[in-house]
Amino acid sequence: MKAKKVWWSVTALVVTVVVGGTAALGVAIQREYSDLSHGEAETVQAPENPLQPAQAQDVDLAALSEKLDELGKNEGLANFGGQVIDSETGTVVWGKDADKALIPASSTKVLTTAAATLALDESHRITTKVYRGKDPKNVVIKAAGDVWMTNEQLDDLADQIEKTGTQVEGVYVDTSAWAGEPQAPGWDPGNVNEGFVAPMEPAMLYGGRIGATKGDVPRSHTPALDVAGELAKRLGTGTFAAGTVTDGAEELASVESAPLSERALEMMRHSDNVMAEAIARELADARGKQPSFLTSTQATLDVLREHRFDVSGVDIKDNSGLSVDNRLSASVLAEVVNGAVKDPQLRPLAAYLPVAGGDGTLHGRYGESAARGFVRAKTGTLTGVSALAGTAQGQSGRVYAFAFVVNDGEILSARAAQDDLAAALHEF
């Protein structure tokens, strides 16, 4: 008899003894107490008023509109476009130049994330593979779009390669998965050194950050090559460069990114520009297009159009909102946010939004405001530009979708005015 069969036999014997002993004890107890009367079983009456889902109360929408009209006169709003939708009815309850095409800054990420949420599986992961080179002593990283690679992932790749027994003399990286220019039209060349973005290459360590894993610190101008260099260091060689995976090459190692849901949450909460562009390229790739700025922005708008959002007046050159050439209206932003409230398929977008006074880019805003915790919104900031697009829950239980975009303004004044508008929604 094999050991496995012995184990099962012993287990069966133990179970039989325990069950048998329990049964014998049960028989003895029954004989001893068989004459006891327990009376009738107690019954529980059904509640007269069972719990029901919360119902939004009626509100004075005319008073709400009047309140917003007054707040909308704030000079800090400068060149302004705004819209508020009552998600309970889908009615636009307030607007001011809502269809005006304005620079949206990072509120562009609302569109990017909406399209990715509608078209991609939230569990989708990006796989980065390493292949044997044409020279068997070399290895080639096939970059696939993971711009948030970690030291732990590189350690894992190195361990897998070492277990194959390969004596590595050179590490190369193939970046052919993406096409086009590494920076979008309308990007400030200083954005890289200032830490807002890195050249878009399909492999990066912590978004291309230099000497840090988070925050707006200077970024590398050669992020994919840096990944090759870090893997080379782990494999004991100083040789690394750009390269190409040859047809039929042997796969030596692979690692996966976090799922899309985690990456989208991180991107929205902290307004990560590199991750926004990468997620949009993930979308373009899923739709059969070689990812570039052109194909990824087209993919975003195509998906939204297919889901009946009117994006006819939208003109975006990137998916992060860094481009000063982007044009977008408050009405489009508000409609997409409202879609996230009403459509279960799009609802994850609402959960990705930062919470007022709670986390992400809204962590330090709303202070002692009664709306703290009741407003969730994506921010946007460029020189002279401030945007806020999201949801606000009113005291009535109603949820309002809103978008407030300011151009040609002073940032702190614009933010304060936008926060006042969003906070007013919580009063109704």
UniProtKB/TrEMBL annotation:
Domain of life: Bacteria
GO term, biological process aspect, one: proteolysis
Keywords in alphabetical order: Carboxypeptidase, Hydrolase, Protease
Pfam families according to UniProt: Peptidase_S13 (PF02113)
EC main group: hydrolase
GO MF terms, alphabetically ordered: serine-type D-Ala-D-Ala carboxypeptidase activity
The EC number(s) this enzyme carries: 3.4.16.4
InterPro entries per record: Beta-lactam/transpept-like, Peptidase_S13
Claim: Hydrolase is one of the keywords in the record: yes
Keyword Hydrolase: yes
Family, similarity comment: Belongs to the peptidase S13 family.
Name of the featured protein: D-alanyl-D-alanine carboxypeptidase/D-alanyl-D-alanine-endopeptidase
Organism of this sequence: Corynebacterium macginleyi
